[in-house]
Amino acid sequence: MLNLPKSPPKSTPAVTFLSNHAHVLVAVAREPDVRMRDIADTVGITERAVQRIVEDLNTRGYIIIAKDGRRNRYEIQPDVHLSHPLTQHFTLGELLRFLYPPFITRAGNTS
Q: Which of the ends of the chain has fewer CB neighbours closer than 10 A, N or C?
């Protein structure tokens, strides 16, 4: 289970500069075999919303989903470029190393 702070209560107005997609990616970067239920609790969205985001990230090539027994294991594809015109010069790995500095690519380096 992730040891991250929970989202603020729904009654608390929150300002966030990152999308739920980014929040899910950070959760996966922290723990590649994290359960969707735990991502949902951490991000503050429903488990169904997490499922849609994970499927979207997989379809777009940002993550690969592999079965590990009864659990899923997520492999982030750090060399994929972001899709928005304002950020397409960045790779997913560069974004994640900014948001979560301990993020390490599958080659084992942080560059």
A: C
Give strand ranges (E) for the chain.
Answer: 63-68, 71-76
Q: Is 111 a member of any domain?
A: no
Is 15 within the bounds of a domain?
no
Tokens found for residue 43 = 């991000």
Structure tokens at 111: 């560059």
Place of tokens 């994640």: 96
- As for how many domains the chain has, the answer is 1
pTM listed for this prediction = 0.81
Rounded to the nearest 10 degrees, how much is the dihedral formed by the CA atoms of 84, 34, 105, 93?
A: 20
Q: In whole angstroms, how far apart are CA 78 and each of 81, 88, 108?
A: 8, 13, 11
User: Nearest 5°: phi and psi at 13?
Assistant: -65, 135
CATH code of the domain in which 33 resides: 1.10.10.10
